[in-house]
Amino acid sequence: MALSPVAQAPVLLCDLDGTLVDSLPDLADALSDLLTRNGRRAVSEAEVRVMVGDGVAVLVQRGFAATGEVPAPEDLAARIADYIAVYETRMTARTQPYPGVLEALGAVRAAGWRLGVCTNKPEHASQAIVNALGMGDLIEAVAGGDTFAVKKPDPGHILRLLEAMGARPSRAVMLGDSGNDVRAARAAGLPSIAVSHGYGAIPAQDLGADRVIDHFDELPDALAALVGV
Asked: Which helix (H) or strand (E) holds 59?
């Protein structure tokens, strides 16, 4: 049976933090709020920049490790819940899409691509940010770090999102800013594009992505080179 036009359409899966949106100010503010409530010092945006990318639990653990001892597991679980509660009050206080994101995503959609978000950030927060920052009409599916039993760099995160979208890995590309994005894409059989403005300690050129872009106006050409549409 022939696939429907929607199923045949190429899919761009995008990471969120550090890729589509600069959320570092709000992530750092929420983490500093949590830490100071627990008798620790605040952390700078520069410190938090290299802590982001592995999900909220790891972010909170890294914040405590940077300012003293990590709480015992049962206490850490409570602090993670506290962080989520704090962060959800300010998710878009200072978070903004990177320059050119909305225009580029609109151009990609107009060229026949479908768009999804694959992020280790919790799904609820991710969807709220996508909607609040004007991307809700462009992005049809969001999979957070808590959507499935696995998350990046496990390729299952990507593959299960594509399955939920009724899409084929052979017609998909991953856009991200970290090694987790590139490793997950490679293991899932997808080409990847890295943005040079992202978070983490490893430069985009060293992540092993198939393409690196410095601005979102380069995205349509990069996609066409990888998938041929």
From this structure: helix 56-66
Q: 107: buried, middle or exposed (CB in 10 Å: 19+, 13-18, 0-12)?
A: middle
Report yes or no: 135 and 105 within 8 Å, Cβ to Cβ. yes
Nearest partner of 129 among 15, 14, 19, 21, judged by Cα: 21
Residue 36 tokens read as 């100071």
24-87 under CATH 1.10.150.240, yes or no: yes
Annotated catalytic residue 15: yes
User: What would the two tokens of residue 8 be?
Assistant: 């045949």
Task: Check: pTM over 0.85? Answer yes or no.
Answer: yes
- The answer to whether the bond into 73 is cis (omega within 30° of 0) is no
- SS3 of 19-32: the string is CCEECHHHHHHHHH
- Specify the CATH number for 5-23+95-227; select among 3.40.309.10, 3.30.420.10, 3.40.50.1000, 3.50.50.60: 3.40.50.1000
pLDDT in tens, 16-53: 999 999 999 999 999 999 999 999 999 999 999 999 98
From 15, 17, 22, 29, active-site residue: 15
Listed in order, strand segments (DSSP E) in the chain are 11-14, 21-22, 96-97, 114-118, 141-143, 172-176, 192-195, 211-213
Mean pLDDT of the chain: 95
- Cα separation of 182 and 174, whole Å? 8
